[in-house]
Write a structure and sequence with these properties.
382 residues, alpha/beta, four-stranded antiparallel β-sheet, 39% helix, binds pyridoxal-5'-phosphate
């Protein structure tokens, strides 16, 4: 896979920080420019485009997930879908929601307010282990919500094993795929999960302010949410008709839960172009490309004496690599030193975090490793 020409310009920076922000492909930048041109001459903003733009996005997402289009809601974040589910799943006093210690705040916060209604929120140990999950389940457990790939440990959860436990106990399994979707393939129809939310701006290479929420129909149909967006129920063309009382539709599927302003041209046009680009490359091919970069990175880090704390092999390994200097207190200054040498990675919970994606090359990895070597040498001399 040779994609680096399809991205940038990076202005001399080596960007190995997709877990913070994925780069936008050139083809998506072009789509954004087209969206701006439409708004500059608003006759371009036809009712057909109001319908077609979200429809094309939904169909790209459905392809990505292996789901029917009517199971995908278009959102602006992972948080939107998590709030929809936390507010909409009919939970009663005494019911339990299971979360996991150390999870990303957006996975935890939407559930905490339910405690006011007498719902119990329990935090399980991390990393989540299927056997411990069995022991933690009680007859009042209703929901398990956690992340597929953990932002701060890089651990990829075994969705099949955890999902099987949830199924057996009649617990909805809600997964945040923000650090996984786009970097690893998924077929939601054959994976035992009930909902998958994600942002579009990381591994799906879209703009900030994009996301989706896939829900299994049984879960969606159980939701108790009052939402009736006029542009989901009708089109702008209907405004030309004689006045009539607007009516509710119940045939919309997940579309009923789209974010308002669904024909969000500036964001959804480039995001669609990014998704179509990734789909054309193939998520399997992208995952293989990323895995080769991760192999090279882990080997180079260890040979330079850095400790890699994220999984180094097997199905738990992800595209998020957490590493530390043997003297942990040096990590923050190493992060700063790399930035001064135009190598952009993240510093998270005391560790260095590397996250390469399809636009990165082996040269990018080598440049980062070279900078790490120099830094060690400089510091040990001084
Ligand atoms: C695991 C995870 N979930 C969610 C998010 C953010 O999503 P949102 O802002 O939509 O909640 C991030 C990163 O920003 C993340 O790492």
């Amino acid at each position: 896979l040779n994609c680096s020409e399809d991205f940038g310009p990076f202005h001399g920076k080596t960007w190995i920080n997709c877990s913070h922000q994925g780069a936008l492909p050139r083809v998506a930048a072009k789509a954004a420019q087209e969206a701006i041109a439409w708004k500059q001459a608003p006759h371009n903003l036809t009712a057909k485009r109001f319908t077609d733009v979200p429809a094309r996005l939904r169909s790209a997402l459905a392809k990505l997930l292996g789901a029917p289009t009517d199971e995908v809601a278009l959102t602006n974040s992972a948080s939107y879908g998590l709030h929809l589910l936390a507010n909409g799943i009919p939970l009663r006093e005494g019911d339990e929601v299971l979360l996991v210690h150390g999870d990303f705040p957006s996975v935890v916060l939407p559930w905490l307010g339910l405690e006011k209604r007498g719902i119990t929120v329990r935090h399980l140990d991390s990393p989540l282990d299927p056997d411990e999950l069995v022991r933690a389940m009680t007859p009042r457990s209703r929901v398990l919500c956690t992340t597929w790939v953990h932002s701060f440990t890089g651990v990829a959860l075994n969705l099949d094993a955890v999902g099987a436990v949830c199924r057996e106990h009649g617990v909805w399994f809600i997964v945040n795929g923000a650090q996984a979707v786009g970097a690893r393939p998924i077929d939601v129809t054959s994976t035992p999960i009930d909902a998958l939310v994600s942002v579009g701006f990381k591994w799906l290479c879209g703009p900030y302010g994009t996301g989706f929420c896939w829900m299994r129909p049984a879960l969606r149909e159980s939701l108790e949410v009052n939402q009736a967006y006029w542009l989901a129920m009708q089109t702008a063309d209907d405004l030309g008709k004689e006045e009539a009382l607007p009516t509710l539709r119940d045939d919309l599927g997940a579309r009923a839960y789209d974010i308002f302003g669904t024909a969000n041209f500036f964001n959804f046009m480039p995001w669609t172009a990014s998704l179509e680009y990734l789909l054309a490359k193939g998520i399997d091919n992208i995952a293989a490309h990323d895995a080769a970069l991760v192999d090279r990175l882990i080997e180079g880090l260890e040979s330079r004496g850095y400790r890699v704390s994220s999984p180094k092999s097997g199905p738990e390994r992800s595209t998020l690599i957490l590493a530390s200097h043997e003297d942990r207190s040096r990590n923050e200054s190493i992060h700063r030193a790399l930035r001064e040498q135009n190598i952009e990675i993240a510093y998270r919970r005391g560790n260095l975090r590397f996250s390469p994606h399809l636009y990165n090359t082996t040269e990018d990895i080598d440049r980062a490793l070279e900078a790490l070597t120099k830094h060690r040498r400089n510091r040990s001399v001084s």
